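Why do we bother with holo predictions? Because pocket geometry can differ from the apo form. Keep that in mind while you read this record for magnesium ion.
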Amino acid sequence: MVAAAICPAGAQSPPKAATNDLNPGSNADMVRACDAAAESAPCMKLVTAIIKPFKLDEVRDALLGIGVNGMTVTEVKGYGRQKGHTEIYRGAEYAVNFLPKIRIEIAVSEPDADRVVEAIGAAAKTGQIGDGKIFVTPIERALRIRTGETDSDAL
Ligand SMILES: Nc1ncnc2c1ncn2[C@@H]1O[C@H](COP(=O)(O)OP(=O)(O)OP(=O)(O)O)[C@@H](O)[C@H]1O
Ligand SMILES: [Mg+2]
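The structure, written out:
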């Protein structure tokens, strides 16, 4: 039987490192603490961000700056509270407009998730409606296909 994939409470929020660097070694103690607390349950998170397309380069540079090793980027369409309208016509919104957005997905060790969220949030923000959202979800398993490494080693 595979252990539950949800990190136990004690593994959720290990102390943050002073550094902003996510590269291996800088947060190794936190990763080990997380893994130890979780025992066999991996502590990985998927950070999914929906952003304005013209902010992609800025967000990518911010993520490179904190040592994120990989990401997936997809062109998507969506709407939020304004239903894709930048103005409300006579006080009513009629049809929904899907607006182009970019979805960024980044798998990280749990202790890195907050820094990734903060970096994206800062880089993607204009202060105008439609800036987007960031979601954090658990990852149960990861595998680097080439080497067979698993979980945090596969990120
Ligand atoms: N609840 C949601 N679930 C999934 N995707 C969402 C959700 N809300 C927004 N999105 C995605 O994020 C994009 C940007 O949303 P947006 O920033 O306009 O949200 P909002 O709640 O309307 O906030 P704001 O008032 O700042 O515009 C949408 O086009 C959609 O792709
Ligand atoms: Mg909106």
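The pocket of adenosine-5'-triphosphate (ligand 1) is lined by residues 50, 78-82, 99, 101, 129-133 (CB under 6 Å).
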